[in-house]
Amino acid sequence: MVGGFSSLLWAGAILCFIAYVIEFTKDNSASMDNLFLGIVLVLVVILTGMFAYYQEAKSTNIIGSISKMIPRKALVIRDGEKKEIPAEELVVGDIVEIKGGDQIPADIRILDSQGCKVDNSSLTGESEPQLRSCHFTHENPLETKNIGFYSTTCLEGTATGMVINTGDRTIIGRIASLASSVGQEKTPIAIEIEHFVHIVAGVAVSIGIVFFIIAICMKYRVLDAVIFLIGIILANVPEGLVAAVTVSLSLTAKRMAKKNCLVKNLEAVETLGSTSIICSDKTGTLTQNRMTVAHLWFDNQIYRADTSEDQKAQSFDQSSATWASLLNIVTLCNRAEFGAGQENVSIMKKIVMGDASETALLKFSEVIMGDVIERRKRNKKVAEIPFNSLNKFQLSIHETDDKRFLLVMKGAPEAILEKCSTIMFNGQEQPLDESAREAFQTAYMLLGGLGERVLGFCHLYLPEDEFPDTYSFDTETMNFPTSDLCFVGLISLIDPPRSNVPDAIIKCRSAGIKVIMVTGDHPITAKAIARSVGIISANSETVEDIAKRLKIPVEQVNKREAKAAVVSGMELKEMSPEQLDELLKNHSEIVFARTSPQQKLIIVEGCQRQDAVVAVTGDGVNDSPALKKANIGIAMGFAGSDAAKIAADMVLLDDNFASIVTGIEEGRLIFDNLKKIIAFTLTKNIAELCPFLIFIIAGVPLPIGTIVILFIDLGTDIIPSIALAYEKAESDIMNRKPRHKKKDRLVNHQLALYSYLHIGILQSVGGFFAYFTAYAVQGFRPDLLLYLRPLWVDDTINDLEDSYGQEWTKYQRNHLEWTGYTAYFVAVMVQQIADVIIRKTRINSIFQQGLFRNKYIWVGIASQIIIAVILSSGFGSVPILSFTTLRVQYWFVAVPYAIVIWLYDEFRKLLIRRYPGSWWDKNMYY
Amino acid sequence: MAALQEKKTCSQRMEEFRHYCWNPDTGQMLGRTLSKWVWISLYYVAFYVVMTGLFALAIYTLMWTIDPYTPDYQDQLKSPGVTLRPDVYGERGLEIFYNVSDNASWKDLTQTLHKFLTAYSPAAQEENINCSSGQYFNQIEFHAPNHTKFSCKFTAEMLQNCSGLTDPNFGFGEGKPCFIIKMNRVSLLRLDSKYIFPPFRQSPQSHSFLPSSALCSKHQIPPTNQDITPPHYSNPLVAAKFLNIPKNKEVIIVCKIIAENVSFDNPHDPYEGKVEFKLKIQK
C-alpha cells in the first residue's frame, strides 16, 4: 500500500525538483514553492514509511514476546564428557541427552529412550503426546517413532539421540524455507491503492496535457506551459492521504488487537475484511481444545451435559439413584488429580495431572459434586489396575462407609458390557437382557455417531463375607471378580466447540463468508463438530447422507443436491486440481478431515483459484507454507509455533474463531471508511486545482499558492480524515456479501466523479467567490482581474490602477494576493467541514447516522478551525507562508456554499435510498 | 488472485481497450450506451448550469453590496506608494545610469518623460477646473458631465523647467536631470503635510523642487469623502532637478513622503511612502 502511494509521491517530488530547476535557470529569484513542495513530499513519504514500519515492528515485538521457542542450551556428550553448550554449536553426529521439559535442540535420531514423550503439535498439529523410541516404524521421517524434531518439546521421560540435522536443514528449517519461498500475493488493499493511484495519475496527466495544449494555444512560452503541466499534475497529488490511510489502518489494527486479533502487517487489516473463505482449524480454534463430558446415558436415557466453557448449567435430571452410582464411579475410578496450590483458581482453569479424558471427568464431577478429593479420601483406594490398551479398562477397588468394598471400572463400552451381567435402571439392578443390550447398543452408536469418545462405567459391591475389610487385594493375580458386574451408564466426551463459535459461524454465513474446516481428526468427529458449530448447517446433507436417506449407493446420488461435503485427506490426495475446483464450487459447506498440514496448501490454492480472498488459520510449523500462501494467514497466539506466527499476517491472541469474525467486521468497516476518507480527500483536490486552471486560462492573479495548499492537505484536513476512520457502520456490514475483488473497488468511478465533478466543483465555486470578494472589497472588481496577470506580476509596475483608480505597488499587490490565498484557504476549510460531515455516510442521512456519535469528527472539525484561525490571525503572516491576517467577514463568505454542499449530498442520499437500483443509484452511489 | 497477476500481452490490452471504446455486443461506447451518455451529459449540463447560476447570483450580490465609489477596505493601501519617472529597473530596483556625452543613452529616458507628461498637456486637462484654494476639494454633488465630479487642473507647465516645454531634454544633456516623482493615488487619503524630501547630503543647492518646495496643493490630493476618482483626474507631480550630482559615481537617492499617516519604513515594500533609486551620470 505504502508502496503504491509513495511511488506517486516520489514521482511528484521529482517533478517538483524539475520544475524548480527550470524556473531557477530562467530566473534566479524564482519562487521556492516547488522546492518546498518537493521536500515536503519526500518528508511525507519518509515519515509515513517510518510510522508504518514502527507500527508493524511493534506488533512483531509482541509476537516475539509471546513465546521463545528456540532452544538455548543442549546437553551434549563430547570426548566422553557431558557438556552443556549453546544449541547452535551442535554439529551432525553429536550425541545429546534430553529430558522432560527440554526442547529438542536439533533433529535427532533416538538411540535410547526411557518413556520419552514429545509434543509435536507445533510441527504436525497432533496434540496428543507422542511416544519416542529407538524403533524405526515408518519411511516418512514425520511418522517414524525414532526421530525427535528440532524445537519440539520433550514432555516426559528421557532419551539420548544423535544429531542428524541442524539449523536450516532440520525438518522445521526446511518447512520454514519452503514457507519463505511461497510467493505471497499482493494484498487486496495494495491492489486497490494501485488502482486508485492509476485513477489519480490518469486524471492528473490528462488534465495536465489538456491545459498544456491550451496554454500553448494561448501563446504561453513552452517552458511556462511545461511548468503549468507539472503544476497541474502536482496539484492532483493527495499529499495527506497516505498519512491518513496509514494512520487509519493502524488505528483499526489497534482496535483489532483489543479484540485479540494482532495484525502484523497493516494492509492485512483490510484483507481480513474482504475475506470470502476462511479455512479454519478445528482443534483449539473452533473447539475449546479440551475433552469435556458431552452426553451421559443412564436409566436408558441420553442426557446432555453442559459443554460451555464454565459448565455451570448442568441441567440434566440428577435425582436418579443410578446417577448417584455413576457419579461415584466417575469420582473414584479416576487417577487424575488437581495440581497443588490452586485453591483460588476456578475449577475449569485448574491444572490437572492426568490424561485428557480423566481430566474431563474429574472436572465434571468436581463441578457437580464439589470436593472430589474429599470423597476419594473417604473411600480409600485399596487396589488399582490402570488403563492399558490390552484389557481396555481401568479398575479400582475402594473402601466404603458400610464396610463393603466397592469395585469400580471404566473403559471401552463394549469391553465393559462384556464383564457385566446386570444393568442398573433407576437404582435397581436388573438382569442384562436382550432389550437392555439393544438399548445400550443404540445409545452407544448414537453417541459414537456424534463423534464423541464414549466410556462405559460399571461397579460391583463386593460381598462383605467374602471380602472382609482385612482382605488383601492383589492386582497381579486378580483375586477379585472382574465379571458379572453391574453396568451403570455411558459417558461420552468430546472436545466441544467454543460457545461463541456457532454465533460467529452464523455471522460468517450471513456475511457471505464460506467457512471450511480443515482438521486432522476423524471424519465422523469432524462432521459432528462441524454440525454442532454450524459449519454444516442443520438441514444440509452430504452425498453420504443423501445416499443413506434414499437408500441408494453413493455413486447414484446427484452431487449437486448435496450442499455439504466431508472430504478426507486420502480422497483429497486422489483429486486433480479440477476436481478440487469442482468440489469447492459445488458445495457451500465443506469439511476436510484427516488432512495433513501440507494439504492445507493445496486447499488454499484451490480456493484462490475461485478468486476468493482466503483466510487460513494454523498453528503448526507445517502450516506455515499455507499461512504464507493465504491472502491472510492467521496464527494462533497460544498454540501457535513461532514459525507459524512469523509466516502469518495476523495472530489470534485467544486462538478463538469468533475473534476472526470480529476482525472481519473491523476490516469491512475500515474499507468503507477508507472510501469516505479518500472521497473527502479527493474533493478538495479540485478546489486546489481549479485556481491554477483559471489562473492559466483567465489570467487572474493566482487564487491560492502551493504553500497554502500544503497547509490544507497536511494541516487542516489530516485530523478530520483520520476521524472518518472512527465512523460507525451505516448498516449491518456483516449482512452483505464480501466485496468482489474486481468489481467492488475502493475507488470506483462514481466516487471519483462525485468527488471531483460535483462536490469538488462546488467547493471551487465557493472558493472563487471568497477570492473575488477579497479582491473586490479592496478595490479590484472581478471584471478587472481577468487577464490582469501580466501587469499584476510585473515587478516594474508600482502604480497599477484598480477599479477605483487607486494605484498599487508590487508589494501591495502581493499582499492582496496573499489575502486572496487566505480567503480561498478559509473558504475551502469551511466547505471541508461540510465535506467531512457529508462523508460520514454514503447512503444514510446524517441524521440517521447521528451527528454526535463519532466524537472524533468534532475533534477534527475543531482542529480545522483552530489551525485556520492560527494561520489567518497573524501567525501565518511570515512572508514564506503567504498567509495574511484575515478580516472576520471572509470566514462566512463560503458558508452558503457549505450549506449547499450538505443539502446536495442529503438530496443525493435521499434519492439513492428512495430508488435503489435506479439510474441515480448507479451513478451516484460510491 | 492468479488472474490479477497475469501478464497480458500488448495486443490483448489493445483489444480490451478497443472493446471498451466500442462494445458491439451491448452497443456501449466507453462503458455507456449512447442514450446513457446523453442522460449523464444532460445531468451534468443541468448541474453546471445551476452552479453557474449560483455563482453568478453570488457575484451579482457581491457587486450590489460593495460601495461603487470607495473601496470597502484599504488593508493593503495604508500608505500610498511612490513612483519615479523615468523608470528603468535593474537587478535591484530603479537604476538610472547614463552618459552625458552619449545622446542615445538618455534619449529613451527623456522620451519616457515626454510620454508620461502627455497626460498633463492642457488639451488632456481641458475639462478639469482650476483650483487654488489650497484646501481639500470636497464635492458632494455630481456636477461634472456624465454624473461625475470635477478634477483640478494639473498641467505640465507647473513643473516649470522640468516640464519638457522649455528644455525638451529635461536637463539630462547637461548632467542636471529632472526626475518626476508621483505619489500613488489612494482614496480616502488625507495628508497632514506634504513634502517630498530627498535626504541628500550635499549642499542645499544640490537640488530644486518644482513646483517650489515640493509642495502638492491639498486640492490636488484625491479628497476625503469623495469617491471614485473623477475621469480626468491626474495625480499631482513633483519634479526634482538635481543640480550637481557627482559624475562617474553611483549615487543613491531616496525621496520620502513626510506625513504623519504615511509610513515609509515597511521593510518588505521599497516603494511604500518613498522611492529609492540609483543615479550614475557618466561624463
Automatic annotation (TrEMBL), chain B:
Membrane topology according to the record: Single-pass type II membrane protein
Pfam families according to UniProt: Na_K-ATPase
UniProt entry keywords in alphabetical sequence: Cell adhesion, Cell membrane, Disulfide bond, Glycoprotein, Hydrogen ion transport, Ion transport, Membrane, Potassium, Potassium transport, Signal-anchor, Transmembrane, Transmembrane helix, Transport
Any single Gene Ontology cellular-component annotation: sodium:potassium-exchanging ATPase complex
Keyword 4Fe-4S tagged: no
GO biological process, one term: cell adhesion
Subcellular location: Apical cell membrane; Membrane
Signal sequence interval, chain numbering: none
Superkingdom of the source species: Eukaryota
Transmembrane regions listed in the UniProt entry: 42-66
MF annotations from Gene Ontology: ATPase activator activity
Assembly information from the UniProt record: The ATPase pump is composed of two subunits: alpha (catalytic) and beta (regulatory). Interacts with alpha subunit ATP12A; this interaction is required for the formation of a functionally active pump and targeting at the plasma membrane. Interacts (via N-terminus) with alpha subunit ATP4A (via the P-domain).
Function summary: The beta subunit of the gastric H(+)/K(+) ATPase pump which transports H(+) ions in exchange for K(+) ions across the apical membrane of parietal cells. Plays a structural and regulatory role in the assembly and membrane targeting of a functionally active pump. Within a transport cycle, the transfer of a H(+) ion across the membrane is coupled to ATP hydrolysis and is associated with a transient phosphorylation of the alpha subunit that shifts the pump conformation from inward-facing (E1) to outward-facing state (E2). This is the non-catalytic component of the active enzyme, which catalyzes the hydrolysis of ATP coupled with the exchange of Na(+) and K(+) ions across the plasma membrane.
Family: Belongs to the X(+)/potassium ATPases subunit beta family.
PANTHER family reported in the protein's UniProt record: POTASSIUM-TRANSPORTING ATPASE SUBUNIT BETA, SODIUM/POTASSIUM-DEPENDENT ATPASE BETA SUBUNIT
Name of this chain's protein: Sodium/potassium-transporting ATPase subunit beta
Organism: Monodelphis domestica
Annotated gene: ATP4B
